[in-house]
Structures are given as structure tokens and as C-alpha cells.
Design goal:
It is a single chain. This protein is α/β, with parallel strands linked by helices. The chain has 2 domains: 2-152 and 321-350, Alpha-Beta Complex (Quinone Oxidoreductase, Chain A, domain 1); 161-293, Rossmann fold, CATH 3.40.50. It contains 12 helices and 19 strands. The chain has helices spanning 39-47, 102-105, 147-151, 153-166, 181-192, 205-213, 224-234, 252-259, 281-287, 301-308, 317-320, 330-339, and strands at residues 2-8, 11-16, 27-36, 49-50, 53-54, 59-60, 64-72, 89-92, 95-96, 116-117, 130-134, 138-140, 174-177, 198-201, 240-245, 260-268, 290-293, 323-326, 347-350. Strands 3, 7, 8, 11, 12, 18 and 19 form a 7-stranded mixed beta sheet that branches. β18, α12 and β19 (347-350) form a beta-alpha-beta unit. α4 (153-166) crosses α5 (181-192). The longest helix is centred in the middle third of the chain and has 14 residues, at 153-166.
Length: 356
């Protein structure tokens, strides 16, 4: 089958690889229809690394995906306990925790130290034609959720988990630094939860515009330092109850600490390219901040499907999928994203299509 593999920094190649293994008990083979490109994919594409992990062999990227069930093994039970059958459209949770360690048993599979994760070395991901996955990682999609929206349920799940960590109440105030897909979805979820005002900041005006449409009150600042000043001015020096850092986690973490109130909360979602957390100790200590680092997501797919589905979706995932590519155009998709081409919010690759 055809697959796109990363061989090193910015070295993506379209290749023929072996078909995935036939599904065993509790497994299904999925024909992949849509794959979103995530910020962590960009880290790996740009440097060949993510955090302290470096790929040492060719790797198929892609962990935000949906597709069509083609074959199943015995005991094909999906993520909510229903029987999975060929022909169903499913979104796939890319994380495969062990299910038996202390953290899994405590309800935190996203923190499992023995997990596999599709699209992160050494486990291949979804930028290919087919993949065999555990059926309990599959969530059946209602007909009104499109292919790109189905792939972006994973992105929405990450945003849901970050908002869960913040322990927000209606009437709380918040700020979001970085209005990429996760940051934009956090803005939307905050608005749905009755949080406000919501301040949001991004260096690209088109993403700022989406943030404003989705509930932010001042979504753009030319200077990253000015955003903290603006928040403090708008809140009479108090700051906001919680700040979400959803950018590249560089100077933006200090910026977040400057704009949050005394006793407030920081939720760090972004992944720094140099694998370092940079924060002035005095700021965090004197303010007595609670700092939560958000890792992926847990137990979010049913909620994400409810938010994105129905006759009147509460979250517009289709609107995020601004740039669309066929499988052979995957390198163009990554380069477009690295350049932040005007208007780009989310690049989505469609492996089952000749053209898009």
C-alpha cells in the first residue's frame, strides 16, 4: 500500500510499504479517509524529534484520523461497548495504553508509561491507505460529521482535556495564548461554558479573526508583551482566573504567568521545541500559581462527537479544515503549515482520494 514516511528532518517520502496485518481479536483494519496535521507532527517533521524522543527509523506520521472499517477480528467492540461492523465510519483514538498499570487503573490512560501512540516513534501512524487498530480505540461517527471533522475530533479532545484541567466555573475569566486549532477550540469551549471575558492572542490575523467569531473579545496583539498589559488593563490590574498556553511554549509561558491573577491557574498545552519550560520563578511563586501540564486527552471522544454532531453543531470542526490535500501532496501540506500560509488553520490529508 502507499504511505508517506518521515526519514529525517523535512524528508517525507511517498513509498510502498507492507499492508497492515490482518485484524486479530479486538482489532479492525481501517481504510483511512482523513488525517489532520498536528503541531506535534510539525515538530517531528521540522527536527525529527518530539520532546526528548527522536525517530531512528522511517516513520509514518499522523495521529488525528478517521476512516472506514474494512475488516474486523473476533470480539470487535468499539470504545463505548458496542459491536463494530465493516462499513462503519469511525474516528480513532491514537493512544494505546496498557490498561493495567497504576495510572490506567486510576482512570488516567493518557499518563500510562507503557503506552503506544500511533504516529509517534516507533509506532506508525495514519498517513497511509490502511491501518489495523484496537477496536476499543474506535468511535462510530454519525452521518452528519464529515470526514475532516471526524479526523479533528482528536484535536477537540485535546482542547476538552485542557479545559477539564482548568476547573473553571461559569463567570470565570480566561486568556488563551496561541490560536492554532487547539487554542481556537479552547476559546470555543470556554464560551460554551459561560466563561468571559475571554482574551485570546495570536500573531496571525486570520486565526485571530476566528477566535473573535468563536467568543474572544480582543483576539489580536502585534506585540506578545502587549497582550499581558492589555489583560491587566482590561481587568483593572487583577488578571484573569486562568490562562491556557497553546502556542510553542517559549516566552509565551512567562507571558501567561504575567496575565493571570494571584492564586490563578496556568494550563500548559504547547510543546516547546527545545524541551524546556521557561518561567521566572519569582512570578509563579509570588502569585502562588497552580500550573497544570496537559498531556493529550482521556475519555473525550463521546463528548467531542456530541459537540460536533447533531443538526446544529456547537463546535465547527469543518471550518477549521481550511487546507486540504491528497496523500501524494502530504509534503506540500506540511510545508504549507510550517510557512503558515495565509488563511491556514488546519491542514487535512485525504489518503483515499486522488484529488481534493
Amino acid at each position: 500500500m502507499k504511505a508517506v514516511r518521515l526519514h529525517g528532518s523535512r524528508d517525507l517520502r511517498m513509498e510502498d510499504i507492507d499492508d497492515p496485518p490482518k485484524p486479530g481479536p479486538g482489532e479492525a483494519t481501517i481504510e483511512i479517509h482523513a488525517v489532520g496535521i498536528c503541531g506535534s507532527d510539525l515538530h517531528m517533521y521540522n527536527t525529527g524529534t518530539i520532546g526528548n524522543l527522536q525517530a531512528s527509523a522511517p516513520l509514518v506520521l499522523g495521529h488525528e484520523f478517521m476512516g472506514l472499517v474494512r475488516h474486523i477480528g473476533e470480539n470487535a467492540i468499539d470504545g463505548i461497548g458496542n459491536t463494530l461492523t465493516p462499513g462503519m465510519r469511525v474516528a480513532v483514538d491514537p493512544a494505546c495504553p496498557c490498561g493495567s498499570c497504576e495510572l490506567c487503573l486510576a482512570g488516567h490512560p493518557n499518563l500510562c508509561p507503557e503506552h503506544d501512540f500511533m504516529g509517534v516513534f516507533p509506532t506508525n501512524g495514519a498517513l497511509c491507505e490502511r491501518i489495523t487498530v484496537p477496536t476499543n480505540n474506535c468511535f462510530v461517527l454519525p452521518g452528519e460529521i464529515s470526514e475532516p471533522a471526524g479526523a479533528l475530533l482528536e484535536t477537540l479532545g485535546v482542547a476538552l482535556h485542557a479545559v477539564d484541567l482548568a476547573k473553571l466555573k461559569p463567570g470565570d475569566t480566561a486568556a488563551v495564548i496561541g490560536c492554532g486549532p487547539v487554542g481556537l477550540l479552547i476559546v470555543r469551549l470556554l464560551a460554551l461554558a459561560g466563561v468571559g471575558p475571554i482574551f485570546a492572542f495570536d500573531k496571525f490575523p486570520w486565526r485571530s479573526g476566528v477566535a473573535k467569531n468563536w467568543g474572544a473579545c480582543n483576539p489580536h496583539s502585534e506585540s506578545p508583551l502587549a497582550s499581558a498589559t492589555e489583560v491587566l488593563r482590561a481587568t483593572s490590574g487583577r488578571g484573569v482566573d486562568v490562562v491556557f498556553e497553546a502556542a510553542w511554549a517559549d516566552e509565551s509561558i512567562q507571558q501567561a504567568a504575567e496575565m493571570v491573577r494571584y492564586g490563578g491557574r496556568l494550563v500548559l498545552v504547547g510543546i516547546p521545541p527545545d524541551d524546556r519550560l521557561c518561567l521566572q520563578h519569582a512570578t509563579a511563586r509570588r502569585k502562588g500559581l497552580t500550573i497544570r501540564l496537559s498531556r493529550r486527552m482521556k475519555h473525550t471522544y463521546p463528548r467531542a462527537i456530541d459537540l460536533a454532531g447533531g443538526s446544529k453543531p456547537q463546535v465547527d470542526l469543518d471550518g477549521l479544515a481550511t487546507h486540504r490535500f491528497a496523500l501524494h501532496e502530504t509534503r506540500n501540506a506540511f510545508e504549507s503549515n510550517i510557512r503558515y500560509d495565509p488563511g491556514l488553520c488546519k491542514a487535512v490529508v485525504f489518503p483515499a482520494r486522488i484529488s481534493v
